[in-house]
Amino acid sequence: MSINNNNQEAAKTREQFKKENNPQPAKVRRRRIRVRILPIWLRIIIVAALIFLSLIAGAAVGYGVIGNGEAKDIFKKSTWTHIVDLIEKE
């Protein structure tokens, strides 16, 4: 039992030694709160709008530049019915 008593005394002295050498209390870790500049729902709307704009730009380039048509014609319904008729040609 004397060995256990010595270990307990040694442990107490280590704790005392730590307190003496480090008089400041341990720093409390603060959890950093993340502030979002754009909420998630706004990000989803922005991504959807960018996808829509890229589809329009792609159609304008494809029909206007590559297809030798006018880019503003992609907004006409007759253009799209003509494209669908070409695709579904039987």
From TrEMBL:
Keyword Membrane: yes
Composition bias type Basic and acidic residues, residue spans: 11-21
InterPro entries xrefs: RNApol_su_b/EpuA (IPR024596)
Record protein name field: DNA-directed RNA polymerase subunit beta
One GO term describing the cellular component: DNA-directed RNA polymerase complex
Region (Disordered): 1-26
Polar residues biased stretches: 1-10
Keywords of the record: DNA-directed RNA polymerase, Membrane, Transcription, Transmembrane, Transmembrane helix
TM ranges: 40-66
Presence of keyword tRNA-binding: no
